[in-house]
Fold this protein.
Amino acid sequence: MAVCRVYLCTFRRPKLLARAVDSLLAQTFGDWVCELHNDDPQDHFPAELVARIADPRITVIDHPRNFGPTATFNLFFKHIEEPFFTLLEDDNWWEPDFLQIMVSSILAYPDVQVAWANMRYWQEQADSSWSDAGRNIWELQQTEPCLMHWPDRRQIHGALHSNGAMLARSSFEYFEVPESTNFAAIEPFRERTFVHPLLFVPRRLANFAVTRASARPIDRADWVHAVTVLTGTFVSEVSLSRDQIAALWADARKPPRWTHLLFLCAWHFARCRSILKQAPLSDWLWVLAYMTRHPQRTQAVLRLLREKRAEEDFLIYHTRRREAEHKAAVLRREPNAEALLSCPRPT
């Protein structure tokens, strides 16, 4: 039995897939097996690539039909024989010491479910070449691994972890996100199901590809709906002080502005309506102007909020679980429990 199972997912990206596989084969840590999931049953390149490599650690699974990205990722979060698993998307790639450092890092924290590393942005150029974008997802001076506790304000409608730089234990309980979930939102949706704290490794061990075009289209109204339910379930279920709500409004006014999400939350979630007490007239006027500019998108989002209840119910359930765990931890915490290292906010 290997130490780690690698799930490599691909959809019509032969050149990028080859790069991702090369980064896997270059790992200094070799005790892994890989399932290469091909989500286009008409694409024969993944099987041909693996046949040429002839590495018995890699097997190809051709999906019988196009599952789509959310359903494909749901296949990977399950109990397996290997103690750890990780995800490698076809457009991203790892540094050679990714698995070595991530396995050794999480072993130092036996109660941690999920760990992830920093990633470097790379930009695809018009000629299909790649250039270093000159920045990481996390721009920190810190170098040592650190724990991140629930709740973190960055989790209001975003995620702390990155799928492409994640290592997780297989011994924990995992949940499928609703298949209707917008693919761009599956990281924050699934992060609500993770037992905290999470472990962040600040070293840049993986690379994130900013492609010129996506193989999978993103519906703008569906995306706004996803971040609205993420925000609304967080604000309604997490105990926030008046100062924290004021900070939430201040964050929403920063570019790219998302004040409209707070108004949508207040409209849809009864327990969010009190946050409107801290909205000045300027916020009301801005939202009115936004809805005037985007009437069709606004109507579509309001319709999705009425119709797509599975995602909302999913987030409420798991947000309440995280809050219950957090409150229980506070009650049993020792006076010096704050000695745990915490991470600064990324710039």
In short: The longest strand covers residues 198-210. Confidence is low (pLDDT under 50) at residues 336-347. Residues 4-210 form a domain with the Spore Coat Polysaccharide Biosynthesis Protein SpsA; Chain A fold (CATH 3.90.550.10).
